[in-house]
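The instructor's notes for this session suggest beginning with a concrete chain rather than abstract definitions. Hand out the sequence below and ask the class to guess, before any prediction is shown, which regions might be ordered.
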Amino acid sequence: MISKQPVALLALALSIALSGTLLGCSDSSTSTAAKSAVDSAAEPTQAPPEESAEAEKAARADWEAQMQQIQSVLKSMDRDQLVGDSATKGPRDAEIVLLKFSDFQCPYCAIAAADMKTFTQNHPDDVLYVYKQFPLVNIHDQALPAAKAAWAAGQQDQFWLYHDGLFAYQDKLSEDYYVELAKQIGLDMEKFERDRNSPAAQATIDKDVELAQALGIRGTPTFIMNGLLIPGGAPLAFFEEAVSRFKASTAAQQQ
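After discussion, reveal the predicted structure:
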């Protein structure tokens, strides 16, 4: 489930990956913002040019290796396998598929969610947007219960409304809030409780996590558009540019 990557788009995505301005959360380390705060507190130093060049070379190699890993995994999957039971927006047969690997307790995912709301409103007919659960349980104690609650809301066709409520009030994430939000939305509470505590909820989330790990994803938010890795913190304008370039590439191939 991949598309040919326009060369200019690959270069643009790589430049964002190497920019040092990525924003996200990771199980294996503190967030980029936290690291920057620590670095800024230390005595400022200027790395020698050769060290900077080596660091950029290593980062480029890492990004390219992950792109190869993503391509390899996606080649083995059709669209139905890729989407699975995940919550989606847009037509199932859309030309462009955008995956978001996300954690409801990650503050950067909340920012990205606002951008994605605008993005999907701009592309109701030509993009299939797929939400993949990737709770970073080592650093976010409410990530998994929030994911289960959102999945349960989805069993009553209210995933996106519940999703918005979770991201809007991340400081309230708790058992009490999951119940409160479900009641506000008007969910069948007996079914909601049964579903969020079911083996099916855990199994669905586990499947998303396994896919993320197979793709080499290390943090949230992470996006993949038609096989293109888009780093966390990429601006909304990049997503618009990517759609335009993928469409242009497809049109050129059809001529």
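Then share the key points. Confidence is low (pLDDT under 50) at residues 29-45. The CA atoms of residues 18 and 57 lie 9 Å apart.
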